[in-house]
């Protein structure tokens, strides 16, 4: 029976509290589930570590991440901890880790759970779609580079490659195969979000997407301009299933998505490659909440659920896939019941209260 080795990076700010809460849930899940074995090993990385040692991601931690079956990370970075050139440590460290793990697809579910605060008055047939952001190129290709010409002009470079676009598009179709389709009518569809009418790079993104779509005739596909998409996400989000887009567009639309369905405390994310997976809440380190036992751990707990789903799919391990679903169902049950909520959701429960409630709910959900 396989034991999954998980590299756990508790990070900075509210990160360690969210990680502790997630461990409580995962430990209970393993107790309840015959045949599920996870071994979480904690490693320090991030801004606090940099302050103490001058390193953000020591070589030993990087190799542990490369060797692990999956990486579970909370949040990294503190505004007052900076590199000598004045930049925060978080972007550089995360880009380095992403590139090393070659995680080309950033996956953010936008799912409305009953009981979660929704920004829309009318939620129609429900909100449940996925934003997939190309994670290694696009407008972030010149990360740390770019050019400033004198004092008047600055430029960055947007790079779209056939290889990068094919991989992320292919991932989008494979994910659509595993999902239940869009809320409106269950039709499976992948939507390319771009600005193909203006930019050559974006026209190429769409062209490569269309090439990949040919391999998935059973799944519908279409393409929508990014400006129109931000309107549709608010007006008729139930018409969408899986969206795939360039890096910067994904950065923006995934935050819009998080805002639709309850805010950062509820938004998980997964970064997926051919060999590695990195799972992380979409929020940052919220330093003003750190150490107070008030942060919402649900985003990290749901990220762990995505991790189990990915591990199970990758290793053809039904127990693991079902365990991921059980965590998600337990979070949904706590939200629906409504008594245990952290302050960001309008309650007064603590981080550990939420962990306890989710762990207890594991016993009574499918
Ligand atoms: P980053 O640059 O790392 O993304 P950020 O400054 O954009 O960080 P976050 O750290 O994500 O922002 O947090 C923004 C605000 O959202 C926080 O100040 C906090 O009020 C709220 N927030 C974020 N995550 C949580 C959470 N897990 N629980 C409760 N509130 C949260
Ligand atoms: Mg942010």
UniProtKB/TrEMBL annotation:
<dbReference type="GO" id="GO:0003862">
    <property type="term" value="F:3-isopropylmalate dehydrogenase activity"/>
</dbReference>
<dbReference type="Pfam" id="PF00180">
    <property type="entry name" value="Iso_dh"/>
</dbReference>
<keyword id="KW-0028">Amino-acid biosynthesis</keyword>
<comment type="similarity">
    <text>Belongs to the isocitrate and isopropylmalate dehydrogenases family. LeuB type 1 subfamily.</text>
</comment>
<keyword id="KW-0520">NAD</keyword>
<protein>
    <recommendedName>
        <fullName>3-isopropylmalate dehydrogenase</fullName>
        <ecNumber>1.1.1.85</ecNumber>
    </recommendedName>
</protein>
<feature type="domain" description="Isopropylmalate dehydrogenase-like">
    <location>
        <begin position="5"/>
        <end position="358"/>
    </location>
</feature>
<keyword id="KW-0100">Branched-chain amino acid biosynthesis</keyword>
<dbReference type="InterPro" id="IPR024084">
    <property type="entry name" value="IsoPropMal-DH-like_dom"/>
</dbReference>
<dbReference type="InterPro" id="IPR050501">
    <property type="entry name" value="ICDH/IPMDH"/>
</dbReference>
<dbReference type="GO" id="GO:0009098">
    <property type="term" value="P:L-leucine biosynthetic process"/>
</dbReference>
<keyword id="KW-0479">Metal-binding</keyword>
<keyword id="KW-0464">Manganese</keyword>
<dbReference type="GO" id="GO:0046872">
    <property type="term" value="F:metal ion binding"/>
</dbReference>
<keyword id="KW-0460">Magnesium</keyword>
<keyword id="KW-0432">Leucine biosynthesis</keyword>
<keyword id="KW-0560">Oxidoreductase</keyword>
<comment type="subunit">
    <text>Homodimer.</text>
</comment>
């Amino acid at each position: 029976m396989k034991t999954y080795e998980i590299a756990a990076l508790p990070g900075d700010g509210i990160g360690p509290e969210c990680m502790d809460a997630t461990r409580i849930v995962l430990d209970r899940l393993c107790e309840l589930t015959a045949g599920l074995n996870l071994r979480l090993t904690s490693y320090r990385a991030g801004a606090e570590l940099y302050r103490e040692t001058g390193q953000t991601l020591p070589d030993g931690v990087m190799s542990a991440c490369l060797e692990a079956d999956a990486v579970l990370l909370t949040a990294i970075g503190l505004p007052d901890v900076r590199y000598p050139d004045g930049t925060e440590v978080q972007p550089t460290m995360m880009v380095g880790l992403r590139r090393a793990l070659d995680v080309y697809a950033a996956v953010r579910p936008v799912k409305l759970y009953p009981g979660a605060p929704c920004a829309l008055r009318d939620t129609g047939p429900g909100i449940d779609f996925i934003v997939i952001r190309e994670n290694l190129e696009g407008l972030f290709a010149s990360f740390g580079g770019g050019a400033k010409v004198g004092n008047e002009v600055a430029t960055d470079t947007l790079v779209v490659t056939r290889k990068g676009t094919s991989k992320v598009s292919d991932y989008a179709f494979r994910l659509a195969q595993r999902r239940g389709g869009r809320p409106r009518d269950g039709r499976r569809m992948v939507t390319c979000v771009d600005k193909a009418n203006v930019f050559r790079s974006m026209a190429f993104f769409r062209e490569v997407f269309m090439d990949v779509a040919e391999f998935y005739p059973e799944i519908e596909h279409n393409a929508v301009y990014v400006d129109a998409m931000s309107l549709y996400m608010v007006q008729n989000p139930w018409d969408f299933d899986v969206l795939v887009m360039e890096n910067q567009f994904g950065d923006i639309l995934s935050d819009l998505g998080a805002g639709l369905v309850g805010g950062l405390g509820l938004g998980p994310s997964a970064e997926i490659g051919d060999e590695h997976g990195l799972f992380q809440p979409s929020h940052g380190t919220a330093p003003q909440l750190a150490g107070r036992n008030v942060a919402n751990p649900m985003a990290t707990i749901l990220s762990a659920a995505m991790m189990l789903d990915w591990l199970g799919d990758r290793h053809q391990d039904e127990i693991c896939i079902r365990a991921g679903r059980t965590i998600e169902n337990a979070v949904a049950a706590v939200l629906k019941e409504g008594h245990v909520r952290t302050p960001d959701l309008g309650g007064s429960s603590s981080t550990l209260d939420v962990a306890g409630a989710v762990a207890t709910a594991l016993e009574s959900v499918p």
